[in-house]
């Protein structure tokens, strides 16, 4: 199990008590006994916890995308301000489970020491794939036991294992007792499996298959050029004329895989369990739908789409000239609904409120579990890998999150890319900013519940 669990005594470094006041740090729940297993998750649920806060203190994904490091520090900055808030009628904190953070320290250290002879981007992308393997089982366990994960920090690369974990966790949530606890994925999440997934690669180890899915493995081989008998992916198909799944099916047929098996490659998890894909809205200046060239912060949604964990993808606030022509065409071919920053805030073709109403309608019509994403790069002046002076205000970002969470039954929320070291007074700006955003998600979910929709 790759999880650094927070205990009650460990929270005291993030907030100070005061006479006649109750801080959120005093009311949030932690895992009983500092253990992550079926029993402690059930106990936390029975005690009233519904939302699971999980940190991912890494910046390997942005490095692997050619970006700036720094988002590993977002999680502790968030805790310092979030736990110092007052517990009151607006947000009491007793329904929050503060899980802790994904263990990333060894991978962060490995990223700083690229082995001799290894190309840095290739090595960082291999480490990013290891992060995927560590994160998705933990997310799947949280969801399977009835929690809504809110993931803070790290690069946007973590959207892929998050979507995958939520989809798998929802597929297992109908199981009860030993059927759930003894499932191989839960055993992996609780650290009882014998799998080597998640281990730091050796200096001469070749990258593992990109995704544990037949379709994604095949496309990964095409994209990397490993399949010498095939043309390069970009030369063999036009992304506007053929879907990824169809391209890989044709590739599998060419490799001698029977038509029956090709058609049978459907939406199932690694253990053969069928799952529902997700519908996701992402507020981001970048589509993060780049080629499957190895894992990084620029391609989590293309990997999720290829793995069939993602069905409907809406993009809000993308910057028109910050996304390549190939990727824009690629997204159009995949049915992505995208609304640019310029169309809303510059040309004023429609308002943010109108756009959000339309996106909410699209997500509702998809009839799949909903995920909500906000990349810190989308917020004007927010310290981040791709910090920008033009973007949503912090208040507009909070409004976006509240609007979606109060109108739809969201299955997860993700706030990546904030980097305290990349801005003046960055820890305070990031800590307070993330606190407002998380509060908006929680209050939106509360509004949804109080409206009788759940």
Give the tally of structural domains. 2
The CATH first-level class of the largest domain comes to Alpha Beta
Share of helix among residues?
Answer: 40-55%
CATH superfamily of the largest domain: Ureohydrolase domain
User: What is the CATH topology classification name of the largest domain?
Assistant: Arginase, Chain A
- Number of helical runs? 20
Strand content: 5-15%
Give the structural class. Answer: alpha/beta
Average the pLDDT over all residues and give the rounded result.
Answer: 86
What would you report as the Rg, rounded to the nearest angstrom? Answer: 21 Å
Sheet with the most strands: spatial strand order: 1-3-2-4-9-8-5-6-7
CATH architecture descriptor text of the largest domain = 3-Layer(aba) Sandwich
Number of strands: 9
Q: Shape from CA axes? A: globular
Low-confidence stretches: 208-220, 227-249, 259-266
């Amino acid at each position: 199990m790759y999880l650094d669990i927070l205990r009650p005594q460990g929270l005291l470094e993030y907030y100070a008590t005061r006479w006649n006041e109750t801080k959120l740090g005093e009311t949030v729940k932690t895992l009983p006994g500092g253990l992550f297993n079926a029993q402690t998750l059930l106990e936390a649920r029975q005690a009233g916890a519904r939302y699971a806060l999980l940190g991912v203190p890494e910046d390997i994904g942005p490095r692997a995308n050619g970006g700036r490091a720094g988002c590993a520090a977002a999680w502790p900055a968030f805790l310092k301000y979030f736990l110092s808030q007052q517990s009151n009628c607006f947000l009491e904190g007793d329904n929050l489970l503060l899980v802790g953070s994904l263990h990333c320290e060894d991978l962060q250290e490995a990223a700083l020491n690229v082995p001799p002879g290894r190309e840095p981007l290739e090595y960082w992308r291999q480490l990013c794939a290891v992060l995927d393997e560590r994160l998705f089982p933990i997310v799947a366990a949280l969801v399977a036991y009835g929690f809504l994960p809110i993931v803070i920090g790290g690069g946007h690369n973590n959207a892929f294992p998050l979507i995958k974990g939520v989809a798998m966790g929802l597929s297992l949530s109908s199981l009860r007792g030993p059927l759930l606890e003894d499932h191989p994925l839960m055993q992996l999440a609780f650290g009882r499996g014998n799998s080597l997934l998640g281990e730091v690669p050796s200096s001469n180890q070749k990258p593992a298959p990109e995704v544990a899915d037949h379709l994604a493995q095949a496309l990964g081989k095409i994209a990397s050029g490993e399949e010498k008998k095939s043309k390069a992916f970009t030369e063999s198909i036009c992304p506007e004329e053929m879907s990824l799944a169809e391209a890989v099916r044709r590739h599998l047929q060419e490799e001698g895989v029977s038509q029956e098996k090709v058609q049978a490659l459907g939406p199932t998890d690694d253990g053969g369990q069928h799952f529902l894909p997700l519908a996701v809205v992402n507020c981001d200046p970048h589509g993060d739908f780049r080629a499957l060239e190895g894992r990084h912060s620029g391609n989590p949604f293309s990997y999720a789409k290829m793995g069939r964990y993602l069905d409907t993808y809406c993009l809000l606030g993308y910057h028109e000239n910050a996304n390549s022509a190939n990727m824009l065409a690629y997204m159009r071919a995949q049915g992505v609904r995208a609304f640019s920053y310029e169309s809303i805030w510059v040309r004023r073709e429609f308002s943010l409120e109108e756009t959000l109403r339309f996106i909410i309608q699209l997500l509702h019509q998809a009839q799949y579990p909903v995920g909500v994403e906000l990349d810190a790069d989308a917020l004007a002046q927010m310290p981040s890998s791709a910090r920008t002076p033009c973007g949503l205000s912090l208040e507009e970002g909070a409004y976006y999150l509240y609007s979606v969470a109060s109108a739809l039954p969201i299955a997860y929320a993700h706030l990546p890319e904030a980097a305290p070291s990349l801005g003046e007074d960055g820890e305070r700006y990031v800590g307070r900013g993330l606190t407002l955003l998380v509060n908006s998600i929680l209050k939106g979910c509360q509004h949804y519940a109080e409206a009788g929709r759940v």
